[in-house]
Amino acid sequence: MPSTRHRPAAAVSARGARRWDSGHPWIFRSDVVSPPDSSAGIVEVRDQRGKPLGLALWSPRSEISLRLLDRDASATIDRSWWKTRIAAANARRAILGGRTNAWRVVHGEGDGLPSLVVDRYGEHIVTQLSSAGIEACRAEIVAALIDLFNPSGILARNDAGSREREGLPRETVLLHGDVPQEIEIDEYGVRYLAAPWTGQKTGAFLDQRENRHLIGQLARGSALDCFSYHGSFALHLARNADTVTALDASAPALERAAENARRNDLTNVDFVVADAFEFLRDREHDGTRYDTIVLDPPAFAKNKPSLPGAIRGYKDINLRAMRLLKPGGLLFTASCSFHLTKPLFLDMLRAAAADSGRRMILREFTGQPIDHPELLTVPETGYLKGALLEAEN
Predict the structure, then answer these.
(1) Where in the chain is the domain with CATH 3.40.50.150?
(2) Which residues are catalytic?
(3) Contact partners, residue 327, CB within 8 Å, separation at least 6
(4) pLDDT tens for each residue of 242-290
(5) Fewer beta carbons below 10 Å: N end or C end of the chain?
């Protein structure tokens, strides 16, 4: 790493400097007064008077031009620096070692390592490098991960669409050792397969771990898991419910769910290929009722313009699920749409409850688990919301 005086530098506006002071790590292109004369990587950031503000990841083609790494402009961002930062993030997850063999080691901006995701699956690591600046640090990051974890393999799931905005290719590439097509996850004693090469996110939905455990412990009677995908909620439900219906529009996804059920010797789960909206409407018409229901849909609001339609969709499925509950029945419902904020999520549930004709009690409101930290000053780090509801009548 070059010395500070030879490091490329960017000058930013007063507004950009205030953004860092307020606790947000991003500086946008419009606030870069003088861009560095360099390719993507680490640059020093100064205010318009030349005062050093820190070191940042520089992405020449991105709207998010600078991402804060270190407020010490004289720091050396090398293998040792990455090792120290990643080790600190991993230490904050120490409690998870007794619950599971799979967790998120680094949650990007939530851990002060913007645009970097590191997920651990047993002896393997799957990472995502989402900006041009972080991509330039790939070699040092991989070396730090090897030093810290001595993994059997490291896979980069660099297939997110955000990389195109950074001028980067979308790819899935092996960075170290070997990573199998499937890895078994043990989560509170429930076992299921992650698919690091082809599955959603980095291979599994690690962010719903605690919510699966929560509703699984409370499940009873007849249970319904909508948008089941590979069945991870259904598996938790099946440990205490009498019967579980795992519902998804994808037959291949449910084939994987059935494999996971067999892996746990569960014989009380039925798998139904159907559209969740149609299925809920049909069950309401034929009078079917459930003791436990889970709604964990995909993100309906992928951008701000789609939010009004998304709210209608969320309200529709929640309204119908509420009507399908037996008295005393439990509904766990979630949204992973960033644009559907916590207040909007609760407003939607209130409207659904009012129209359902049921008295619904909010027993618990959940957010993201400890390995997906949400910073109060960085709203973009938070997206997952969940609510445990009970039908009183």
Answers:
(1) 207-391
(2) 336
(3) 391, 392, 393
(4) 999 999 999 999 999 999 999 999 999 999 999 999 999 999 999 999 9
(5) C
